[in-house]
Amino acid sequence: MSKQKITDEDALSFHLEPTPGKFEISATVPMTTQRDLSLAYSPGVAVPCLAIAENPELAYDYTNKGNLVAVISNGTAVLGLGNLGALGSKPVMEGKAVLFKRFADVNSIDIELDTEDPDAFCNAVRLMGPTFGGINLEDIKAPECFIIEQRLKEEMDIPVFHDDQHGTAVICAAGLLNALHLSGKKIEDVKIVLNGAGAAGIACIELLKSMGAKHSNCVVCDTKGVIYQGRTEGMNQWKSAHAITTELRTLDEAMKGADVFLGVSVKGAVTQDMVISMADNPVIFAMANPDPEITPEEAHEVRADAIVATGRSDYPNQVNNVLGFPYLFRGALDIHARAINDEMKIACAHALANLAREDVPDEVALAYGKNLAFGRDYIIPTPFDPRLIHRIPPAVARAGMKTGVARRPIIDMDAYELSLKTRMDPTASILRGINARARSAQARMIFAEGDDPRVLRAAVMYQRNGLGKALVVGRSNDVKAKLEEAGLGDAFRELEIVNAANTQHLSVYKDYLYERLQRKGYDSVDVHRLATRDRHVFSALMLAHGHGDGLVTGATRKSAHVLELVNHVFDADAAHGAVGVTALLHKGRIVLMADTLVHEWPDENDLATIAERGADVARHLGLEPRVAFVSFSTFGYPVSERAEKMHIAPSVLKARGVDFEYEGEMTVDVALNAKSAEQYPFSRLSGPANILVVPARHSASISVKLMQELAGATVIGPILSGIDKSIQICSTNSTANDILNMAVLASCKVG
């Protein structure tokens, strides 16, 4: 799998566009009338204020406290960058807030405190306590992080969690449970060596001891060597708690006969000789970032029996905190917890470990482009496993209720799990899935319009995101100049620039094109001109001859014109069953609209074909197709000649014996609104439609544009379906990200 490249320019652009920062606040209530204003603010707001003053617990009912976490730092230990100060840490804290929302639907606000004084820090956080349902501490240097967390836990009645410590510890513990299971060892029997006695390392060893590891079997090392009883150099109270009576003094000595190595230290801290000296079936968690203490390749070179985990996504068994903190807080918030205790962390670790032992859903395997099964290279679930949201929080909640930290215990756990399944935005997982599939496919993507800066930025992003190889059609000097203007001059060497002047295949292309067009009024001169001067035709010829795996075009010319040019090389027209399907993503729903590109005025047979193509696209996106033929009438009323074909089309599908749900004709509200659909209990749809087949291309275009402009829907497409090769045609108002999305779809062969 190709590694991603991230430049300074990429990172700065990501944080700058489309608006500065990584999240915004949006209202959950209407604010359109005077009555709305009166209820939201004065005088209506007085009523919940008085109720909360009388009973503080009602704050969880009438405010967002129960789903609001503060991500708080002073910037004294930002990633591996050191003390950047409060303001320098803000991008990281914003990022943490985004992860909370994306993975567990937890609202979060970042707060950066401009102080290195633990007393001042604690006072500030304590005074903000009424606002939040939980506190996530981040990037605070040791030993102050220990002092701050312990004091806040004592002074506040909401969960206080330092993720740098406990997040790493929980995921490490989950992975270790499975690694020991595979190696046939028990935690109470194994010798564990920890290198790195900072916040994360100490939290790891403390959690493992609470899970059964023996104090005498745990050897902790820092830059001075083994932490032993009687050592004075570089010691503090937190290290002293893990000092043991031993003659061991160096990491090299400690590793002899060790069953487990945990590293939260520095690159290269572990040598191959150390690995050789470990016990049978050694477990190595080399978690230093960005480079581990020893790479999996280096470890396996000398010990084939080793189980290795790192903190990196490009190796198996990634110890990733995002597997823990969103779900820990989700479970804690849902029981209105007073704290996150060891029992809740252990429950999280066990739930993660158990999940990794289960069969991996097809969509996860498809997303990663490989079979994932419990074993030495799969001991920890992947971050994009859709089961995490409804498996981990219930386990955390149960532990919290059992240990008495829940203010409001959950009565019906089955209903709670069901609510978690439906809580997350399904469009997010779909987009993550197709991106992961694209990264696995590593397609050679042809970007036809290399003279357009948006296309060039998309091509650069495609390649640097590790999605595959970007082939840009254009003149080298022009491409280079435009990249430099965009601040991406260094990307020129990374891209492959292709044109008629530098290809060795031009004669083959022209012969092929002449054979297709000679009976359509084109002579050899016309064909030469098309093949050498028109980038859309040239790009299509590249694709037709296997000199690329997918094609993205259309950003600079109207889609109808581009499609006409592509059809010189392919049969992407109505007569051959081609269809354009546009995906609309809005408020957690995804609806496909068809046909938005090819059929001007389809008849009932065309409409049936459009429905089939829409179902193909839906399945490629991980959706179970439910097709509605939409009109201004529902099941024959009111009677209209214009609606007749929509009425007949379902019968055509029935005759074809298709294997997906379909119904019609019907109005849009009946198709999409379950309440409206209840009036028609005979409907063959088991739920709201996710594919709308419309009467004509103009109605499709109008509908898509209305949703985009008035509702703010995200539009992907039109997705060209029903042709042999993977071609996607952008709109002329596409952004670089839109073009990239189309390239991803082309890479996944959606359609």
Automatic annotation (TrEMBL):
Enzyme Commission designation: 1.1.1.40
List of residues binding a divalent metal cation: 138-139, 164, 289
Similarity comment: In the C-terminal section; belongs to the phosphate acetyltransferase and butyryltransferase family.
Binding-site residues for NADP(+), renumbered to this chain: 78-85
GO MF annotation: an example: NAD binding
Tagged with keyword Oxidoreductase: yes
Obligatory cofactor(s): Mn(2+); Mg(2+)
Domain annotation Malic enzyme N-terminal: ranges: 20-153
Matching Pfam families: malic (PF00390), Malic_M (PF03949), PTA_PTB (PF01515)
Gene3D superfamilies recorded: 3.40.50.10950, Isocitrate/Isopropylmalate dehydrogenase-like (3.40.50.10750), Malic enzyme, N-terminal domain (3.40.50.10380), NAD(P)-binding Rossmann-like Domain (3.40.50.720)
The keyword Nucleotide-binding is assigned to this record: no
Organism field: Planktotalea frisia
Keywords, sorted A to Z: Metal-binding, Multifunctional enzyme, NADP, Oxidoreductase
Protein name according to UniProt: NADP-dependent malic enzyme
One record GO biological process: malate metabolic process
Active site: 96 (proton acceptor)
Residue span, Malic enzyme NAD-binding domain: 165-401
